[in-house]
């Protein structure tokens, strides 16, 4: 299923056209965000009662992959919005916060690592602290932020206008995500917008991982689009007697391997997404599924490396889209949700019991 079928020729074109601008500005392009808003992307995890889709995990995975094929950074913002809205639903009785859901297409950012502390008082909770790496914070209406309140791990719903933004995101890849730092300096938050957090269900944890992996798989697909276009052109392997890339058995072999790796990564992700929504899912399955997630991320990296071998050094020209996909995959696939050595550690602990 192609990106044009899912989000339309116009939308995919807008994302591709403004991908370089997003990277240059260290934040998503306004034109791209508006295109996603019109397509209902930011309402994927808005409850239906508030005009959203409340899409299942497999649908989220497919949509983020298709977006990432055009602009991984913008897809990442959409994934962060899914995660933040899901946490808001799980932690808060939404009947108490109708203002949070007033706009079903609002961009919501968040951070699950407690970067602040709250002091309870008669007027609410006074919050002070810093949350780094909050993707999309400059364009979000609300932030769903972890903090410690009275010794309890909690989440707060805070309008971004009540916070300061420090532009600290200067990375080699996923630059357009605008994952800057949010700062609260004695911000007063109404008590009903603070909730102690219970442990997340394994299905929710898998959803959060899929929102990270989807843009990475999409980036690998975008890179593969560039390589397939190269094979369809008149380009030939440099310093060879071949007149076209497709004449080289070695090039065809490398293309087959890269395509297989991308397909395997996507199929693995979709299988995990399907499992995340299963009512029969248990905590015991979590280590194996997270191992699969990490493997899918590594498949994306390996696939793009083969593509760069096919393209040669010119693939690293800053005007070549392939190098941007390479950097986005390299950074995005190393998110903590996709950490390979911790996934191996957790899975291994289920196989043997230390003496």
TrEMBL record:
Protein family membership: Belongs to the HpaH/HsaA monooxygenase family.
UniProtKB keywords: Oxidoreductase
Segments forming domain Acyl-CoA dehydrogenase/oxidase N-terminal: 16-80
Protein name in the entry: Acyl-CoA dehydrogenase
Oxidoreductase as UniProt keyword: yes
Source organism superkingdom: Bacteria
Pfam family of the protein (one): Acyl-CoA_dh_N
Species the sequence originates in: Actinoallomurus oryzae
Domain Acyl-CoA dehydrogenase C-terminal residue range list: 214-339
Signal peptide per UniProt: none
């Amino acid at each position: 299923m192609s990106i044009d079928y899912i989000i339309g020729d116009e939308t995919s074109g807008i994302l591709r056209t403004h991908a370089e601008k997003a990277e240059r500005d260290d934040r998503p392009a306004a034109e791209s965000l508006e295109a996603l808003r019109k397509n209902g992307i930011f309402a994927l995890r808005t409850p239906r009662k508030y005009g959203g889709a409340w899409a299942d995990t497999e649908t989220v995975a497919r949509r983020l992959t298709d977006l990432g094929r055009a602009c991984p950074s913008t897809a990442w913002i959409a994934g962060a919005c899914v995660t933040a809205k899901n946490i808001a639903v799980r932690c808060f009785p939404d009947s108490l916060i109708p203002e949070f859901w007033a706009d079903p297409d609002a961009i919501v950012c968040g951070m699950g690592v407690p970067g602040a502390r709250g002091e309870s008082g008669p007027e609410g909770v006074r919050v002070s602290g810093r949350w780094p790496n909050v993707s999309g914070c400059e364009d979000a209406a609300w932030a769903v932020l972890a903090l410690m309140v009275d010794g309890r791990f909690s989440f707060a719903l805070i309008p971004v206008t009540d916070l300061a933004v420090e532009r600290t995101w200067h990375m080699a890849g996923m630059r357009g995500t605008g994952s800057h730092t949010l700062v609260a300096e004695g911000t007063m938050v109404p008590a009903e917008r603070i909730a102690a957090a219970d442990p997340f269900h394994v299905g929710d944890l898998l959803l959060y991982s899929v929102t990270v992996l989807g843009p990475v798989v999409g980036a690998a697909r975008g890179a593969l689009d560039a390589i397939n276009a190269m094979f369809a052109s008149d380009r030939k392997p440099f310093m060879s007697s071949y007149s076209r890339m497709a004449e080289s058995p070695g090039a065809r072999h490398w293309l087959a391997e890269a395509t297989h790796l991308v397909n395997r990564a996507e199929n693995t992700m979709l299988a995990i997404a399907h499992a995340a929504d299963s009512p029969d899912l248990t905590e015991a399955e979590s280590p194996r599924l997270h191992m699969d997630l990490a493997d899918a991320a590594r498949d994306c990296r390996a696939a793009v490396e083969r593509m760069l071998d096919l393209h040669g050094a010119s693939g690293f020209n800053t005007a070549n889209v392939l190098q941007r996909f390479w950097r986005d995959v390299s950074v995005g696939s190393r998110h903590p949700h996709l950490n390979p050595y911790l996934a191996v550690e957790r899975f291994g602990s289920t196989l043997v019991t230390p003496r």
